Amino acid sequence: MKKKNNTTLSKDKPAIIFAKGSLPRFQLIQRYLKNAGIIICADGGADALVHTSIRPDVIIGDLDSITPETLQYFKSSIIQYLPSQEITDLQKALEYVEHLEIKQAIIFGATGGTRIDHLLGNIALIELFKNRIDIEMIDEWCSIKLVHKQITVTGIPGQIISLWSFSDETTGIVTTGLRYPLHNETMVRGTHGISNEFETNTASISVQKGDLMVIVQHPELLSKKER
What is the pTM of this model? Predict the structure, then answer.
């Protein structure tokens, strides 16, 4: 198993992780690559990068889904072969990020075009690592993050933002800048917080107890007519 030389690694920059699901458009990915500290592919997540300019620093997993051609193409990448079947390759990638002491990870390919059991498992990883890594999952439609007590997000009026309780009960929710504000409210798992909207260009969301997912539509998907 190859090991990475961490002497030139910036722990202050986010790790970019590519899972095996469908990737969003390349222009969207490029926005985040500019500030990447390290690029990691979870096994077959590397296959979609072969015909792009993106070169992974590390390919990690049990290597049961990546093609031999992709492995050969990225032969200069570090290969972390971890054969364990107890956890998914995406979780292995996040544990690798934690080992590098990087505190932020941006993940592509975790929510689109994947099996429902993998999708649910991937979403659960946001909560599993909540006290160790600040995770953001991005697909063609939106970004997904967890509120750590308080979060500020930017958008444009009319842009969709949904709040979803990841706990049995999330209490003390306060929002500003949204069309339907919340004032010290409680959410349980369900659909109560789906399809809110930005009222201004900045929204603030805070919670007292529990885990709250924030799902934000990409602003460019809001048509001129909707604006």
Answer: 0.91
